[in-house]
Batch of 2 targets.
Target 1
Amino acid sequence: MKKRCIYTVTAALLLIFYKPASAQNTGGQLQHLSLDEVWAKAVTYNKQLHVKKQEVESGKEEIKDAMAERLPEVQVGGDYARVSNMPIFENGLLHTPSQYPVLHSTYGLDGDAYLNIYNGNKTNLHIAQKQTLEAEKQIQVAQTQSQVKLLAAVHYLELQKGLMFKQLLLSDIAAQQKQLDKIEQLRKNGVVLKSDVLRAQLQLSRQQLSVTTIDNDIAIARQQLAVTMSEPDDFAVQPDSTSLADSAGVKTYNELLADAYHHAFAGKISEQETQLKALQLKDVKGSNMPKVGLFATYSVSYPQIMFYPYSPYLYGFGLAGVKASFSISGLYTNRHKIKAAQIELQKQETEHEDMLDGIRLSVNNAYLRLQEARHRVEVAKVNVKQAEENSRIVNNTYFNQTSLITDLLDANNTLLQTRFELTAAQIGEQVQYYQLQNAIGDL
């Protein structure tokens, strides 16, 4: 009797405080979008990807700046000065000097230009370094785009899983309500105890409360997906179940690994880093090479005091020719810089090999997880069939008075759980498929 009272009070409280789950407040109509359409929005408007694209534009300007080093350097300048008197101490500092007549104003205007012909190929190397960095930034854009698409796919699939869970749960609630009506009728006929009705009511109430949790999961997934597309929070996506990828046609592991070595973003970035270190080594070695260039200079001055005899007139003077230099001290001062650059290159080559190992591990992990997810789907399908048959048998035996209410409720729970597991396994397979595509650089 005491247990019956507890069941009655608990069921009453759950039914009083429970509010049926209403449709998610989306602030507007649902946007029916396929995964490809979500990707198109994410790639176009995602803020993180936009920042990477701006870095590429900055890299292009840096290349133009490096190429401008090939242009001649041109400078102009001018000066004006007041010249003091020039005393001449003919009889020593202790006697009054005589004043030599000078022109008290002097001014000049000059210009010079220098065109580099050869400086150890450093100009071309600087351009190549900037081009390598820009190419690396382009790869980073593609890498970020792939990561954004993977993130959007995960949120999209999480949203779809939540909606499928809710549909399964609502169907189960409807079935349990019909079952509860039958049990209530049996109680009225004196066939079963009231405790059976209370247990069935408790089970139904728990399922109804679970709808709220699922609704919250759906709302969170929708917001995460909206943020990925840089849309407002009330932008509610309704997934298209027909747009899921078919993971059955995945290549073999060796084929996937070969694709990853050619297309994986981490490997491409590492290749660019290695190329950059090689260019930096050549740049340091170029400091030991001679420098040759053309130069020209011309100046207009007043007065003429450069050559004797001096004259109080405006004059012009220009020079043009070839200028060459070679740093003798660079042969021993740059030795350690060259050695350090060589070590940096060797270090980067080792890191590149380590990166290839990481790619192999990543592809193998994603490939095995996909196979595991596929196997989980097959097992889940078998479990659903077995749970459906078990539920059918227990349902018949209970209403024929040969099994207990606990057996019936356990069978109901097991059936719902196996259906949840099948849905989660199917969504998980999709997630693993896109993670594999991201690992090989093909997303």
Target 2
Amino acid sequence: MMMPSTLGGRSPLFALSVSAGFVLIFIFALMAWPSRMTFGASHMYRSYRYAANSKANVPISEVIKLLYQNIKAAPSEPFIREPNGSHLELPPNPRYTKNMGSDVLILDLETRPLKSTEEYNNGEYEWRNLNHVSGGIFNHYTYALVHGYDYKFIHASEFEDRHATWIKPSALANHIKKYKFIVFLDADAAFRFLHVPIEWMLNYWSIQPHHSFVMAKDPWSAREPQFNSDRFNRTYTNTGFMIVQNNENTMPILKAWHECPDDTRYKNCSQWKRPRFHEQSAFGEYIRYDYEQYIKELDCGEANGYPGVDISNCQGKLIRHYWFEKKNVKVDFRENIMNAITLPIQRVFAENIGGIVQEQEENIIH
């Protein structure tokens, strides 16, 4: 993508060095803290908590915006470059050309407390020990900050009679009225590219105004067709990543889905209260057949799976879902953040900002 040619009234190199330095000083100052925060005295603990929360520090939202301001893709960017050099090209005549900002909600739902919160409160937070749940949440929250979307983490109560994943329909219904789109991800799912906005993906997948739900299919194999298939041998869609659009059909779908286990509309839907795949099976067995035209089903490789999954080519092209190898959620997040941090450092060397690169024509001692 194009880099801005000027930044304010001063030279671009000066502005770059100032902005990059500002960000890096802040980040490296945080990184300079002891790698494992174990505090023997209460005043030490308070000082670390103060450093993390001090209003004198630049808000993390501003740091993230500054890091990504020159590398974030536009909604109608013609193509996205992949690390291997190939490109994901946008179809012609994209519908979404502007960032929707706070009209989009990035939503996390959990009945589990975040282990990282407990560690932080105990003064023991350590990135290296972070589990995949917190790693996934951090990915989603950072993505919202990069693009100016709203973000909510809903800590929901457990059901008494059904699996915890049944919290999804009601939580989506309770928030969709305030937004144009809700983007939901399980904790083991992640945005592959933090710099690619959801508007770009809506364009890439040709999402239309009548689409209430966007989901990716699960992997399917002819060798074991009974897995990930409904009673009609049709492949399930995975509810670990959903784009929900606010239109006239969305609430009826969510209501039907939420009430499905009560067996009022769909006989025998209660069988999916606890057995796998819970709410996903109910959606695949019943809901989608009544609302077919309002549901966009993506190929598995578009927004499900991860590198190394050969079945159905579920490689996680834009959204990755680590059903296994969950630790790689953190790896994806780390690689995205490091790319944003090191790009301005590399530019310093490439453009020799400040004259830090000097040529030594003769290898002699003067």
